[in-house]
Amino acid sequence: MRTTTIYNIVHSELIKKGLNEFIDEDGNLVFFDNDHQFMTKIFSYDEDISEIVDDLFNGMKLDDPLHDDHFKRNFFYCFINRQINRQTIEAFKLELINVFMSNKTYINMVYEDLEDHILQKNISHSDNEQNNNQVNTGSTTTDNRSAFSDLPQSQSNLDVNDTSMSYATDNTISRNNQTNQQETDGSTTNVSNSENKSYSLDELFKSNGVLENILNIFDVKCFLQVW
């Protein structure tokens, strides 16, 4: 069984774009001019090549444009000479899209969080806010009264239950009235951030080949296993 390759697909699409690596627009022979050779475009992964590869993925992309470009470059150079495992390009694109969609979240996480996993980064954040509003009110009244009277000769004693003395030789009155009010209103906010990293060669070694494992999934699902 023999099917087309990624290289043949790219070669065909470049010709459809009106490019020619043998004769230029003026009819001059440019076969020996590297600037017009398709392989030069392939090596540089220029805009024409990027558009063709994006079309193979039906325009689907990773979340970060830089990550998307890096992944598709790796995909392109890894499988450029491999035979697709479908008889038509359309059937191949359907399978390629399916595999990409199934692994898109994982691929995004590999690109975005791989360094954090290698460094075993631990990030914590906490906010603590306290509001205090307190009012204390107090009142104290001290009332002192004293009176002295020389008893009349006709009266032998005073009525101690009577708080009022009509006649007094000496009358002393003192009153102390004190009111206290205290109000406390305040807020306290505490913010704490911490970040810890742990450097380990063992974790770095484990991360080696992560992208290759992802490409192996595309290899099994989308390409013939013949050499």
Note the beta-strand portion.
Answer: 15-25%
Mean of all residue-level pLDDT scores: 78
In whole angstroms, how far apart are the ends?
Answer: 12 Å
Strand order of the largest sheet: 1-2
Q: Determine the fraction of residues in helical runs and give it as a percent range.
A: 40-55%
Number of strands: 2
**What best-fitting shape do the alpha-carbon axes yield?**
rod-shaped
Strand-pairing-aware structural class? alpha+beta
Q: What's the alpha carbon Rg, rounded to whole Å? A: 46 Å
Count every helix, treating DSSP H or I runs of 4 or more residues as helices: 7
Order of helices and strands: HHHHHEEHH
Mind describing the biggest β-sheet?
A: 2 strands, antiparallel
Features:
227 residues, alpha+beta, 24% strand, 2 strands, 41% helix
Structural features, described:
This protein has 227 residues and is an alpha+beta fold. It folds into two domains: 6-121 and 199-222, no CATH class; 126-191, no CATH class. The chain is 41% helix and 24% strand. The protein contains seven helices and two strands; from the N terminus they run αααααββαα. It has helices at residues 6-16, 38-44, 47-56, 65-79, 89-119, 201-207, 210-222, and strands spanning 122-148, 170-196. The protein has a two-stranded antiparallel ribbon with strand order 1-2. The longest helix has 31 residues, at 89-119. The protein is rod-shaped and about 150 Å long. The N and C termini lie close together (12 Å). The mean pLDDT is 78.
Write the layout of secondary structure elements.
Layout: H1 6-16, H2 38-44, H3 47-56, H4 65-79, H5 89-119, E1 122-148, E2 170-196, H6 201-207, H7 210-222
Antiparallel strand pairs: 1-2
Helix pairs in contact: 5-6, 5-7
